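Q: How would the structure tokens look for this protein?
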Amino acid sequence: MPRSRRELRWFFGVSITAGVCEEVLYRGFLVAALTPALGLPGAAVASTAAFGYAHIYQDGAVGFVRTGLVGAGLMGLTLMAGSIWPAVLLYAVVDIAGGYAGYYSLRSQDGLNLDSTPAAA
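A: Here is the predicted structure in token form.
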């Protein structure tokens, strides 16, 4: 989570990159690659499970389930829209909102004005 304005600016860019890259990978490429072997429903389930597994570092089994459910929602949005772009936008917006919430929460929790702290080299 970003703790300074500088980190917040970088987090904004990372959020957009994550939205594009992960949606292209999981809801685009992986589904397209697995559909010939598994059919669209099987590819969607496998891709969603892979997405959850890729996020297992976020609190182990709880992170797997939580992000798997998010991935299932993004998969549903992609299938309904017939395009990954609504999911890309939603993913990026959710990440950006989380970054801003984390920034303001951590900033007030720390009780410090981190915006004037010099950046580490």
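The CA atoms of residues 3 and 103 lie 5 Å apart.

The radius of gyration is 17 Å.

Upvote if useful.
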